[in-house]
């Protein structure tokens, strides 16, 4: 049974499977389209919201954090690019894991990606609703509060009002409590839901359903608008920069800067989603690697410049707001520009929603084509040339939770699956190099011999921890063994993996860049809360039930290989 669980697909098998499947996707995407989709996914709510909090915590030095994180993301992007040039098939990390690690790991990654894309879009849809409602209010249009929020949020605000009084409520809480009081009721149950979040999901799903050409055109237009406005903010805001606002450059030290590392890293996530469109590219082996690197570089430059302009226009201590780009122009009295930024933020978030809603059905489709999910998920619409059934299911899967759940419930859940996928893709490149599959790659991660450098990096990290991390070491000394297992286990795993990579890197002469990608992503995983891991493990357990109940029996690779392993 173990050999069946870890049976691998060859590159030829994967390509043949995609070509022999019922119905073909329309090949219409070029480099420009892919870069546009990548920017659409990356430049979403992050540059219009979370960049403010990161600047508040770290000051102007956050611009350097964007440089560091961009470099760290490049390690992963290069690994994705090598796989995309080798296996030009939809499926992203799921397909890559099938080649490198076998069916069970592929299933786990595919199941994690389903969670990642679905939860990401729930967050994006709810965030879109908040910006949309705020934009309408700017034009004097006020939707009833009970149509614009999650019922749990309204209930919590109302309960707080009853227990602590009006003085304890923020302006937003007061709006939520009022919405609870005035909502229509069925019996004693108030009718409260986030209508804009549900509607935008339905509209975007419809656009994704009717065709990749239409989705491409919409994405290109929205990206042109938001990048144009961001450039206008950078160029226009530069005239209002006061250099004294950049002093002190790191007011809260390195610790203040690093508090935003997870949020800043997540602001770059999205480049991986364009790999799901491989079968709709005219020349995926050439264009996908170029597009991934280009969209990362463009977004990194935009993030760095916008951070410097924001912290130069307004003191960093003023930026703990949800809409920092609009706020800085209100601060200097240019309200009309704040209005333009507000409208553009709605466009930006819509484009991010479009890309992730485009990506998820193609994961379902690829897993179904391999026999691991119900075959209807692989259905291609004869007219629109899109995975029609999978797209509809994705729409329901995102829209219904977005109507009724708080964003806080979803906001960190995407991280676990994302980092896990990134780690496996980076590790997969090491496997490709070792097994010789890399010889088939049109693009390769630049090889830097890590035989000694991985160990040198570990020694430097331990030295930095000793010299600059005494507070952290003192905290560890006070922890019991059970506390370490409960709260710090992943940190222990991180250091153990680094030690193991030192040994394996010496023996197999591992390439340094994929190893750096593994360590960066694993470190960020270790910083996530226990609740995120608990929900992820529950989702993973559910996925294993589905796999052993259906996928294991219906796997097409099983019918081809019988009891023999397929060696990639």
Give the name of the CATH superfamily of the domain at 2-14 and 29-139 and 198-381 and 410-429: Amino acid/polyamine transporter I
Radius of gyration using CA atoms only: 24 Å
Count up the helices.
27
Q: Give the overall shape, derived from the CA principal axes.
A: globular
Residue share in β-strands: under 5%
Strand order of the largest sheet: 1-2
CATH class label of the domain at 2-14 and 29-139 and 198-381 and 410-429? Mainly Alpha
The major β-sheet equals:
2 strands, antiparallel
Named CATH architecture of the domain at 2-14 and 29-139 and 198-381 and 410-429: Up-down Bundle
Q: Compute the average pLDDT.
A: 86
Describe this structure as you would to a colleague:
This protein has a two-stranded antiparallel sheet with strand order 1-2. The longest helix has 36 residues, at 103-138. The protein contains 27 helices and two strands. Among the domains are: 2-14 and 29-139 and 198-381 and 410-429, Amino acid/polyamine transporter I, CATH 1.20.1740.10; 151-192, no CATH class. Strand 1 (185-186) and strand 2 (189-190) form a beta hairpin. The relative contact order is 0.18. With 568 residues, it is mainly alpha-helical. Helices cover 71% and strands 1% of the residues. Helix 16 runs antiparallel to helix 17 (335-369) and helix 21 (453-468) packs across helix 22.
